[in-house]
Amino acid sequence: MTRLNRRDLLKAAGAVGALNLAWPLSAGLSPAQAREAAEALGADYDPAPFTLGVASGDPQPTSVLLWTRLAPEPLAAEQDLPEVVEVDWVVATDPLLRRVVTRGTATASATLGHSVHVPVSGLRANTRYWYGFTALGRTSRTGRTKTAPVGAVASVRFAAANCQAFHDGFYAAHRGIARENVDFVVHLGDYIYEHGQVGGVPADHVRDHEGPSVFTVADYRRRHALYKGDASLREAHAAHPWFLTWDDHEVANDYSGTGGGAPFMQRRAAAYQAWYENMPHRDAGASALPDPEIHRVRRWGDLLELTVLDLRSYRSAQNLADGTILGAEQKSWLKRGIDRAPDSWHVWANSIMLSQLRGRPGGSYMFTDQWDGFLAERKEVLGHVHSSGLEDLVVITGDWHSAFVDDIRTDFDDTSSPVVGTEFTAHSVTSGAYSADWNRTNGPLMGAANPHLKYFEGNRYGYDVYEATPERFSAHMRVIADRRDPVSPVTTLTTFHVDRGGAGSYEDPATKNSPAQYRRD
Predict the structure, then answer these.
(1) Helices (H), 150-230
(2) How far is it, in rounded angstroms, from Cα 468 to Cα 344?
């Protein structure tokens, strides 16, 4: 086999001016050659068969979901494995897995890509656990997880990430998340991107996708495996339990879950299956093939209620008078939850911007793929928040590849309408934002056009860390120095606070002189 060298690949890419002409993960290579090519460009994998690592998700007081997937050749369309493989799992209270609290065996079948989803029960609340898997005579890395507490809770700390285009940089942000002292992680969507190669000189794209747009289960499996070839992503999964929602690129750009003909519905089913196979997601269904149900409510003791929303699966086309982004059943479910909400912080995990966003004073909405394309439903939901008396609402959002802080009003065009919450839109992990020149010009225009907008910063990449106590909710914007550097350092750009029982946010005095393209005084 001809060995591939990263320096030679990048040199060739620079000579032709486009990485896609030199990128070797394409038709004609064996799975082993494809993996070697990926590793030459910076990817790596855990030892087989647990190449994609381990993860946990959906923590509850007595239960957590454990995940792994057997993929000896991660970039192969089909794995050279038996139809069914027995996988042993163990949960312990120490990193060496000696103080075992429970163990068992699960089956990994070819039908679901040899993935394993183990809903472990009988655990103690608010407790750290470690776990691992064994199969085919090999043992996985050890993962760490935590169950949710019950009763009185003094504080909770969690991270949120979104939009991690593989071709746009390394996952130094996930390396940072892995090292954070957090209770859990929320991923807000665009975990993968479905399109083909983007090209560009190495200064623009340090790595690229392995081929054209993806359509089949095998295609989506390869794409997920390519993304998990970033060691920092696997590390973040192994370090903390995750809650997950999705946006559009897990399937196709700007898609509507209820639109499209048979070919698209087949593509969506393939994407959903591969997503489930590769995520620590607790599925509510009992069918042989998953149709993942994303929306759910989870509580972190008496301090925080997390509502995870699915803004893709049930939506109609945008810009319709009677359009829906939630779908009728999810909207009814959300409104019932608002009516029954406990006295706590209420956090909505929301994949696309809820707040109104006009590009300039008197101008049109910038993007109607977000809630701006579903005006009547947004007004209905926020009106229900107000009429129910719900307080202490914080919405955490991804998608925009830039950071925003907004007051949430029942009517964004009426500055006298009540403020019912705060929205924090986080920087992307890697996905490209607008240029610094665009941000400098348009930040003030967006501020003038949107009186509810308090802050905008679009020149950086990273993640948010949120911290809640009974008195205050804080958002720490954590940013990396350079997405081309896999070990780029992480710093805090700025911090915003929301006081319990108060309306709206305010910037911490210690960080309010940090760089931004718009800041409302």
Answers:
(1) 172-179, 217-227
(2) 10
Closest CA to 304 of 271, 348, 270: 348
Residue spans of beta strands (DSSP E) within 151-249: 156-161, 184-187, 241-244
Burial class of residue 333, CB neighbours in 10 A (0-12, 13-18, 19+): middle
Q: Which residue, among 232, 209, 229, has the nearest Cα to 219 in the 3D structure?
A: 209
Q: Which helix (H) or strand (E) holds 135?
A: strand 128-135
Query: pLDDT digits over 113-127, tens only?
Result: 999 999 999 999 999
Nearest to 338 by CA among 406, 410, 389: 389
3-state helix, strand, coil in the chain (%, to 5): 20, 25, 50
Task: Count, in order, helices (H) and strands (E) of the chain.
Answer: 9, 23
User: Using an 8 Å Cβ cutoff, are 259 and 312 in contact?
Assistant: no
The 10s digit of each residue's pLDDT in 312-358 is 999 999 999 999 999 999 999 999 999 999 999 999 999 999 999 99
Q: How many other CB atoms sit within 10 Å of the CB of residue 424?
A: 24
Pairing status of strand 304-308 against strand 345-350? parallel
Residue 97 to residue 182: CA distance in whole angstroms: 22
